[in-house]
Amino acid sequence: MHIPDGYLTPAVAGTTLLITLGTLLIASRKASLEKETLNEKIPLFTALSAGIFVAQMIAWPIPGGTSLHLVGGALAGILVGPWLGVLSMTLVLLIQCLIFHDGGLTAIGANILNMGIVGVLVGYTVFRVTQRIVKKVWLSSFLAGWLSITLAGLACGLELGASWNSTLPVYVMSSWHAVLGLVEGLITSGVVSYLTVKSPKTAWWS
Amino acid sequence: MLTRKTLITLATLLLLSPIFGVILAEELGYHEPLDIVAEELKLNESEFTWTPLKDYTVPGLPEWLGYIICGALGVLVIVFTGYVIKAALGRRKIEFSDS
Question: Would the pTM count as exceeding 0.90?
Answer without folding.
Answer: yes
